[in-house]
Structure formats: structure tokens, C-alpha cells
Amino acid sequence: MDVLALYKQAGAFHEGHFLLASGRHSPKFLQSTTLLQHPRAMQQIGAALAEKVLAAGHRPDFVIGPAMGGVVLAYEVARALTHTLPDVRAIFTEKDGQGGMKIRDAFTVSPEQSFVAVEDVLTTGGSVLKAVRATEAYGATCLAVAVIIDRRQVTGPLDGRPLLSLEELYFETYAPDAVPAWLAEQELQEI
């Protein structure tokens, strides 16, 4: 699967000067919400991530993603997993108003359960790790973090948790005080 081609076809790949949610600056940006509106593309991505989860030997009780972008992705991955794991669920975390994430009261999570956390594009891992920690606070075990695109410059686990990705795609990012002149000359777009 050519994930970048899916982003380009959906008009979700942008070039310019972007302030990312992580606070870093980048000349390229992947707008996953643009891609998320295309059910066929999301079915393909959900199936591909579910295949990676199963191939790694994981059998989660549920899939969780941080709101908002992780909601649709968690659903699609869980839906694809139901072909093998009929009782797998899709749930999500939301902001808790204190800089962290929380699980909605309507969802049940218990210590004997295991889960896979999903995210669209991984730059620093901040959002998905907040979702993981909120879920682990209930005693559940994180089997892996599964992402569409891993933008990190390093490969391997995310904060000690196995990481599964459909594609590793590194775009240079810059700290606010280290933005090169050629990028600073372009109009800044906040994401």
C-alpha cells in the first residue's frame, strides 16, 4: 500500500510552512482529517493496520485512539480485526481539561484487558501516549501502538511500547528558535 499516494489523492499532503501540534515547524504537513473523510481509503488503512497487529501476534480486547483523529482510525482498525477477533471494540480518549486524556464514562476498561492504541501521524507521540497512559491507569495492558505514518527520525519502540507503522516518512522539523530563513520567509500556517 502506498500510503503517501493515498494522502496525495485525497489532497491531504501539503507543502509550505506549518506549525505542528508538537510546537515544531515543518515544510510539509499531512492533514489526516482530509483523508479520514474518505471511507474507502480508511477501510484500506484500517485493514492494513489490523493485519500488522495480527502479524505481530497481538490479540487486543479493544483498540483506542485519541479524539478526534484517532476515533475513526480506532473504529476502522477494530472493524477489520473483527474478522479474526469478533468481540474487539473501538473506544477513544478525549482531553481531560488538564493537559491529559481521559476515557469516556460510557466505555469500560478493566485490568485483565489488553489494547492497541492507534494514531494517524506520529511526530513526537505526545497525544497517543496520553491516551495510552489514561488507559493503562485502569490496569489494561498496551500491546502496541499502531500508526499510519511514523514521522520520527528514530525507529523502534515508542516509550517502551512496540510500534507498528504502515510507513516511515521523515520530514525535517525545526524547533521554534531554529527555523531556517528559507522556511521563515513563508507564511506560517498553524495546524
Radius of gyration: 17 Å
Q: Which structural class matches the secondary elements? A: alpha/beta
**According to CATH, what is the class of the domain at 46-177?**
Alpha Beta
SS strand fraction: 25-35%
Query: Taking all residues together, what is the mean pLDDT?
Result: 94
Strand order within the widest beta sheet:
5-4-3-6-7-8
Tag the structure with descriptive keywords.
single chain; 191 residues; alpha/beta; Rossmann fold; 6-stranded mixed β-sheet; 3-stranded mixed β-sheet
Written description of the protein model:
With 191 residues, the protein is an alpha/beta fold. The chain has a domain at 46-177: Rossmann fold. Helix content is 30%, strand content 29%. The protein has 6 helices and 9 strands. The chain has helices at residues 3-9, 32-36, 39-55, 69-81, 126-136, 181-184; strands at 13-19, 25-30, 62-66, 89-95, 101-103, 114-122, 141-150, 163-168, 188-190. The strands form 2 sheets. A 6-stranded mixed beta sheet has the order 5-4-3-6-7-8. The chain has a 3-stranded mixed beta sheet with strand order 2-1-9. The longest helix is centred in the first third of the chain and has 17 residues, at 39-55. The protein starts with a helix and ends with a strand. 39% of the residues are buried.
